[in-house]
Amino acid sequence: MAASPDIVHRDVEARFEARLEGHRGELRYVRREVEGRSVMVIPSVVVDRAIEGRGVAGALTRAALEWARAEGLRVDPVCPYVDAWLRRHPEFAGLRA
Prior knowledge:
- By secondary structure, this protein is α+β, with helices and mostly antiparallel strands.
- The chain has a single domain (about 5-95), classed as Gcn5-related N-acetyltransferase (GNAT) (Aminopeptidase).
- Helices cover about 25% and strands about 40% of the residues.
- The protein contains two helices and five strands, in the order ββββαβα.
- It is globular.
């Protein structure tokens, strides 16, 4: 069975970090107020080449969107990967800003 990444939310730094086999990935975000609503803008997800294709970016995206949902945030997926991920996961469609 493939190993799952360990994901940590670093709230002060506004990022989610994944570690897998000594390599890392990260999803950065910015919280903004847009028309009276709190929005999580996600500009990027970056994963070390050594662990690309192993579900790390997807795990980071899922963790970030689950957190956004729990916080009552809408999501602006500026990052093309996150935008595509949201389209493939309709259970999160209601989060889109």
